[in-house]
DNA sequence: TGATTTCATGCACACGTTTGTCAACGGGAT
DNA sequence: ATCCCGTTGACAAACGTGTGCATGAAATCA
């Protein structure tokens, strides 16, 4: 009734939804009591029968806490932001899914945004998320030494990098051992008998692109000697198209190669298309290994031998890390590196 | 300084970020002036040079509007919620992506949540989104006549159904013409010469599952006569596994069939696996048509003939519809139905 | 029974905005 | 000089919660 009196006239047509004051009125108590009864952390201050009564009113009126008001008061939104380059890239959905699962089970709700690897867009997105008051950020788009990390740091928002690692010690990251993954792929090919192995890689300003290339390079040097030639082409992005054209150039310029290690499965699919396009055979004429083991890589032709990335686990660990940061627990600020293992299918075989 | 005085002691260590009051102080004006200067709709009330001065202070201090406070005041969060069954299902990411693109360009930010088709989880998610004060909801998980629609209606949250249609006149939906898509697939097979065609469908309590089956059924009746037998098996979900087992049963029980129309590509991939598993050939022994044309369906073996679903367009139209609803424009409350067209690849050929 | 502790609840302020209302000011017309 | 009007800027009241502190009642103890 307090509220009703205060409105200028009764003209205000009760547009607002039911508030804590309404249920207090129903229950015949002060709303602060309702607030406490509804807050698990303060519930112990209230008598059980009162809690019961209030709960009944809550249910009857269909009361829902106003998260904005609560957030304004507590400075916590129970909201986190997830930033990916492109949800349409099959590597991301499982990560986002895992994050949402983990965070959802403790009452968080997640924003997602795409950047298309555009720094402007990424900066704007971070700003918007911070403005929304997210309690934390999980970012899969940081470039190496990305200055955007500062924006998060400056705002004091707990941030963890996932998948791509900006390699900035101020924030933790969760990723796969990219270099070792590529090295493993190379070793597999070497074991099969290949001696001319090329790399179709991704952008070198990304940890994924760079580390994978480095792993490839190192494994080649180890296998073929320090002054052996390292054959590689880089796409401007991890896309099928870029894989197709990079592989095309490779095939034209180096006729002797018998195997390709692609920087990821998208590039690998592009390689496959370039290979087919030229009428040569995989794995007959040329072997191919991808990375990530995206969905359906077992159904393509030929079924793709690839390095499996535990994407769900990436998301899970990133989420757990973030939760700990938000809760103020001391956490390992370093690199959290997961293993990627070889999935042998049919796209890589002995050279003929 | 007002604020400083009011804090109990100066003990409060400036934990809060920079507020509108700080910039007002810097600019030497009242904060209401700052608010207006920053609000495009009210900016005309302020002199250009003042706007300039204020903007400078904003930039200098790195002020970011507190969305919670703003939302609390205006009852608008510029936030919308998107609900899907499973982001891991390749049909969803493009839809979500399109929604985020469209809404993002006008300053909205989107929540996403997964339900795994669990009504409890879905209800909880809707509650949580509403509690967060979303300005609108785009839901891809409604079942036929889903009572959860009422929850949204009751809360007065603009809601549009996408992909799956609850077929409730109170809310608009945008989807593909599922029945016609299946019919088109059947006609294609009939034209190729098939006479024994079966359906591997999805759950019949979903518009997608039911309409596709109906379209299949009707087309068969049209082609083979009203009292021809309609052969169909239904999976409990649109998954590869369900497709595999349903197709297995089909193959065991009906040896004469020469073609299968799957309810979607996931089921189709499952069918493919069941077919391969039995050592029969696709399309040699049995033709297969999927639906949706998910990513990589051109790279599987055999390249899948399928009905293309314009998923991006689905998301775009849903977003546009929602924007109009939020803006209070009168909109078409009915069904918005997009066409799905046949993509001919290699999994369907003449029967031998 | 009176003093003291414990417990449940009420009070009021603060969180950071937006916005209706109004005062102040300056210029132009009479 | 007076009056009026238009332009700017200031004020204060919400929006719905959380929470430290005060209060009152009941319970405990001497």
Major sheet of chain A: 6 strands, parallel
Largest interface: A-B, 53 and 53 residues
Whole-angstrom Rg of chain A? 27 Å
Give the SSE order of chain A as H and E letters: HHHHHEHEHEHEEHEHEHEHEEHEE
Total strands of chain A? 12
Structural class of chain A: alpha/beta
Count helical runs of chain A.
Answer: 13
Q: Assign the CATH class of the largest domain in chain A.
A: Alpha Beta
| Dominant shape of chain A | elongated
N- to C-terminal separation of chain A?
A: 87 Å
Strand order of the largest sheet of chain A: 2-1-3-4-5-11
Oligomer: homodimer
The stretches of 5 or more residues of chain A where confidence is low (pLDDT under 50) are 1-15
Number of domain units of chain A: 3
Indicate the mean pLDDT of chain A: 92
Strand content range of chain A:
15-25%
CATH fold label of the largest domain in chain A: Rossmann fold
Based on the structure given, which CATH architecture of the largest domain in chain A is correct? Answer: 3-Layer(aba) Sandwich
Proportion of residues in helical segments of chain A: 40-55%
The CATH superfamily of the largest domain in chain A is known as Response regulator
